[in-house]
Amino acid sequence: MCLANLFTGFAAWNEPGGVPAAQLPTAATDPAAAFLIRALVDGKFYSLFSLLFGVGFAVQLQSATARGDAQLLTYRRRLWVMLGIGLVHLLFIWPGDILAFYALVGLLLVRLRHLPDRAIGRWAVGLLLLPVPLWAVFWLGGGWQARLPLTPAAPFYAVAQALDQPLHITSFYQVVANSDWVFFAKAMRSGFFYRAGDLLFQWRICKVLAMFLLGLWVGRHQVSRQLDAYRPLLRRVALGGLVLGLAASLLNAYLDHGRAYNLGQTPGLSFAVLYALGVAPLALGYAATFALAWRRPGAQQVLRQLAPLGRMALTCYLSQSFIGAFLFYGLGLGWAGKVGPTLLWPLAAGVVGGQLLFCRWWLKRYQFGPAEWVWRSLSYRRAQPLRRKAALAAAA
Length: 396
Known about the structure:
Blueprint: H1 2-10, H2 30-40, H3 44-66, H4 73-92, H5 99-111, H6 117-129, H7 131-140, H8 154-164, H9 172-177, H10 181-201, H11 204-220, H12 231-255, H13 258-263, H14 268-294, H15 297-304, H16 307-311, H17 313-328, H18 341-363, H19 370-380, H20 389-395
């Protein structure tokens, strides 16, 4: 997620108005580095995040059932609090926020929690493929040249452009590279509508809800607790997902028709098809591969070292935005447009490595990450105990 957000947003690499990509010191290797990000990372990790969200929902559902909360009132509050956190994040820090959208789709998932297993499979496959014909309808209807473009994104983009006009904004680089707080705050208002438009234009609700549902199935059957029993299925998913997902994703990254997709041009159809065939299968292949690796003592020992990141996932996600803003925005160090994809790989690894060290230090002293504590306290409508008993005893 960190690398994907740096590449698609904060870095503003090759954006109009920025430093030409050919003038960067890493120009020789940047195309290959960008190709690998598009093929192996972009889209795959929000899909993994979505799958884990569905697994978490299944766990919450089981807990709610055990304590008699059939209406999932506490979980619904968690989603509303997440929506609030996401909106603050979206409006003031990073226009690529995913939390607010996840909260809204999560409310829809609550309504679908009683779907039987077979229906979940049908829904997931249908939802993952649905964006292809929906984009084709938009394209066949004239794309953006039509009098009334056949996409729900159109009014949101229109509002965003109207908000940008008085500020004379012509590119995303202009927003992130500026060093004026007032200008940035005004520009982020249009960022809200651009984000909503992007999510609607890409039919992200279909993709995310599909992965939520698959995660619900995984959590419902407690696959993580029965890895040996599900080993044959995991092996099929790993093999099939990696083969199909890698083939489609590599071809999609090679063709690089994402711009044509956004403009409603004919080559965009190949992007839509290959995205549907590549992103979710590869994400599932990654997940199944990690699950199979967990069964091996040596690999499990390595993977356990990463557990603190998972326990503080919300804190890590939000802090990555603060770090990205500090490094790339003109309000910070102003690296936007000056760092190519080659350097984003070690930079993302450094950020995540630093977060891992911080998470380990924090969790020795506290039960939850700072963002998790706020989320949990607001959800339960009272401040939750934060410090660990051992830390309190040592302090005493």
